[in-house]
Design brief:
InterPro entries: Beta-prop_WDR75_2nd (IPR057644), WD40/YVTN_repeat-like_dom_sf (IPR015943), WD40_repeat_dom_sf (IPR036322), WD40_rpt (IPR001680), WDR75 (IPR053826). With 804 residues, the protein is mainly beta. The relative contact order is 0.06. The chain has seven helices and 57 strands. It is globular, with a radius of gyration of 36 Å.
Length: 804
């Protein structure tokens, strides 16, 4: 058993972007949001992820712009640090070590050099009671400094950051908890308390004097209001809640409201830009919507949709290599792990979803791809009780024209009871789908054939129905070459031949109902693995039909790697999950990792790498061809990473340019191969000694383009240097001006003689004595020709030689 610290569990693409309110830069060009242990920077115009601010070692819980510099942002984290960033260039400026977990951050222009933070109270072990503290930032030249000067502002505040806000000018701070509003005045150091009303909005006025305050009540939301936000000028109020409708209230006009409905999931946070031109809303479906002040949606930043639970398995689309799982209700989402970007949603149910608690609606519960990605099978159902159960089996074909899946066949009565497992065959020649249900049957589905022509048709039909002693099947799996099908019936595993549908043998040695079932791959394809409810992991040898080995372990998820012989087993015990990676041919694990997470793991998948790793270490070889991703019960998508891989990713993230200041753009990627081939030919034809040196101008341009704009001198200062960098010095010997004048007069005389000769040739041509003569040039053309002859074109040779 091998355990190493070189492999660690990291948060990967798909982290929540709706945990904290997003912030908009002062120029409305960027949106910043916390995502796992990163701060992501997006473009408001293109919705593209630009870069990440990476440095925290735990969940980022709050971000806010630096009031002293609008190009900088503060971030706080559970790791107990506050970091100051230049978010334009992604540079970490300073780290302030607080020393305790931080859950929110606030700043005020009036309180210079002071941060306000949410921290857990010392007497609270469950992080349910919080207090607001002020931290004075020490002035130091070091990049990392401890901030020890801390004082409490208020205790027993809400853990929701949206329930705390600073007033104009930083004179007071308001915080709400339960149904009570508290206002703390810094000058008086007093707290005034007011009572609120559930589900309604109150606008308070003159609350500086506790006995003379007034308020007005606004009501539209039928449930609790999740968030409020004033526009910068204070003339409008924005509100949002579970209805997924953004409401804009106009100050002084109680009955005048504007609505922006159907924004997706429930609205959790609302932010406004400093100029009031853009709004941002965060939603429960892990989405950020960018909205113009005219109440028009101009952009959507969609993260990995995370609902209450993932009912399908984690799957990889064989075509796009995207992660596929449950998305918004009734949909499958396709998410790029490489780009950390939501690609698109596939509407499976094709019905309008109604956001109402307790309403029974269709959900996608099963999905599977064939080996080529040409077919997708889905199962949707509704009705928690068997008597009210309603489900459909659908087959989707990939359309090359639209580059998406199109519904091909809908089977309304695939089984008489709930489908609990299904899988496609592994063969690329013949596509077959097997479904197993609680009606004690498993069925094989194939593309139908016309009864007259016996040619394959573009629809699916049942090819075989199998059962075993009226036992309910629990799982099904194809071998790597699709020559065998294993179907488990309670405690018995049956082996079938898909060619003849003959039951070849049964395996029934271990006690307990079979939960997971999978075949070995590559050199281990002769083995069959299974887990039972009696906490046993068993391996059978299909050549001898005997139990090869077994071990006592409670496996919550058994996941084979389709690209190697390795199999991953997640085991939950003692309130944490352990990982074991092994080969079926050897009961000894290749790798083990204790305490991967504190929750059970029921969903995992191996993702093929674009570039395989070259690790020779036994403990990391299982990560060479593919990467293991898993999903926890808290909907955290995690993966395993090696130190070598992290160093490579860090170096690639710092690489801004390639090949002499050529940016990595889609145009460069299109022509990059041609450039490399051309560069190789130039290297072979021109030795290194004959290669012209890089001009000083290109170095100047590189420095100009790579230096952050806010630290450059004024453009007027750079103009002359920039223009001079394009000029090429004349290294030739200057001629005597008198000699040049004499040469010019000689050229004019020669030109006149040539003109006379042309006149005589023209006369001969008219008489037919000359076949071909040079056409006559005008005096203006002769002068232009003379000027061109005097021009020095030697600089072009150096330019051509330096061209890659």
């Amino acid at each position: 058993m091998v355990e190493t610290s070189d492999i660690r569990v990291v948060r990967c693409g798909g982290s929540k972007v709706n945990l904290t309110p997003p912030i908009i830069s002062n120029d409305s060009r960027f949106v910043l949001c916390a995502s796992g242990d990163l701060v992501k920077v997006y473009s408001t115009r293109t919705e593209e992820w630009l870069h990440s601010l990476q440095g925290h070692t735990n969940q980022v819980t709050g971000i806010t712009l630096n009031p002293a510099n609008h190009l900088q942002v503060y971030s706080c984290s559970v790791d107990g640090t506050v970091k100051l960033w230049d978010f334009i260039d992604g540079i970490l400026i300073k780290t302030f070590v607080i020393g305790c977990p931080l859950f929110a951050i606030y700043v005020s222009e009036k309180h210079t050099g002071v941060l306000f933070l949410h921290v857990s109270m010392a007497t609270d072990s469950k992080n349910e009671c919080f207090q607001l503290v002020s931290v004075h930032l020490p002035k130091s030249a070091e990049q990392e400094v401890e901030a020890k000067e801390m004082s409490a502002v208020s205790s027993h505040i809400s853990k929701n950051p949206s329930c705390t806000a600073f007033g104009r000018g930083g004179e007071y701070i308001a915080f709400a908890r339960h149904l009570q509003l508290n206002v703390y005045f810094f000058r008086k150091q007093k707290t005034y308390s007011f009572f609120c009303v559930y589900g309604k909005i109150r606008l308070w006025r003159n609350f500086i004097h506790k006995k003379e305050y007034t308020y007005s009540t606004q009501h539209w939301h039928h449930n609790a209001v999740n968030t409020l936000c004033f526009t910068p000028e204070g003339t409008h109020l924005l509100s949002g809640g579970i209805e997924s409708v953004l409401v804009q209230w106009q100050y002084g006009a109680d009955n005048r409201k504007e609505f922006l409905p159907r924004l997706g999931g429930s609205i959790l946070h609302i932010s406004a830009s400093s100029d009031g031109q853009l709004f941002c809303t965060s939603h429960s479906d892990n989405k950020i919507t960018v909205i113009e002040s005219s109440f028009k949606v101009c952009g959507v930043i969609q993260g990995l949709v995370k609902g209450d639970a993932v009912l399908t398995d984690l799957m990889i689309d064989p075509r796009s290599k995207a992660l596929v799982l449950n998305g918004k209700p009734g949909h499958l989402q396709f998410y790029s792990l490489l780009r950390d970007k939501h690609l698109y949603n596939l509407d499976i149910v094709q019905q309008e979803y109604i956001y109402e608690a307790g309403l029974d609606q269709f959900e996608v519960v099963k999905a599977a791809f064939d080996i080529k990605g040409s077919w997708l099978a889905t199962v949707e159902e509704r009705g928690k009780k068997s008597s009210d159960l309603e489900f459909f089996l659908k087959l989707w074909a990939f359309d090359e024209r639209t580059q998406s899946f199109v519904l091909n066949t809908t089977i309304t009565a695939a089984h008489t009871d709930r489908i609990i497992s299904m899988c496609f065959s592994s063969s690329e020649e013949t596509t077959m789908l097997v479904t197993a249900a609680e009606d004690s049957q498993f069925k094989a589905w194939c593309q139908g054939a016309d009864a007259d022509t016996q040619q394959d048709q573009n629809f699916w039909s049942c090819d075989f129905v199998g059962s075993y002693h009226k036992l309910n099947p629990t799982n099904c799996s194809f071998s790597a070459d699709s020559s065998l099908l294993a179907v488990s019936f309670q405690e018995v595993i049956t082996i079938w031949s898909p060619d003849t549908w003959e039951m070849l043998t049964t395996l029934c040695q271990p006690p307990g109902v079979i939960r997971d079932l999978c075949f070995g791959r590559l050199s281990c394809s002769k083995y069959l693995l299974g887990t039972t409810t009696k906490n046993l992991l068993c391996c059978w040898n299909l050549l001898t039909c005997e139990l090869e080995w077994s071990t006592s372990v409670d496996v919550s998820k058994l996941q084979p790697d389709p690209f190697s012989e390795n199999v991953a087993a997640f085991s939950y015990q003692s309130k944490h999950t352990d990982l074991f990676v092994f080969k079926p041919s050897e009961p000894r694990p290749l790798f083990t990792n204790k305490n991967v997470c504190s929750e059970k793991v029921h969903r995992a998948v191996f993702v093929p790498r674009e570039e395989p790793l070259n690790s020779c270490d036994e403990s990391t070889q299982w990560l060479n061809r593919s990467q293991l991703y898993f999903l926890t019960q808290n909907m955290d998508l995690l993966t395993f990473s090696t130190a070598t891989e992290e160093d490579r990713m860090l170096s690639s993230s710092k690489q801004l340019v390639i090949d002499d200041s050529v940016a990595v753009t889609p145009f460069y990627l299109l022509l990059g191969k041609h450039r490399q081939q051309q560069q190789k030919l130039n290297t072979q034809s021109h030795p290194a000694a004959d290669k012209p040196q890089q001009t000083q101008g290109s170095v100047t341009i590189k420095e100009l383009l790579h230096t952050p704009a806010h630290v450059l001198p004024a453009a007027s200062v750079l103009c002359s240097m920039f223009v001079n960098s394009f000029l090429i010095s004349n290294t030739g010997v200057q001629q005597d001006p008198l000699r040049e004048e004499m040469d010019s007069e000689k050229e004019e005389e020669d030109s006149e003689e040539e003109m006379e000769a042309c006149d005589s040739q023209q006369e001969l041509r008219a008489q037919g004595s000359v076949d071909e003569v040079t056409p006559k040039l005008s005096k203006a053309q002769e002068r232009e020709l003379k000027r061109v002859r005097k021009t020095d074109f030697s600089w072009m040779a150096g330019l051509i030689d330096s061209k890659p």
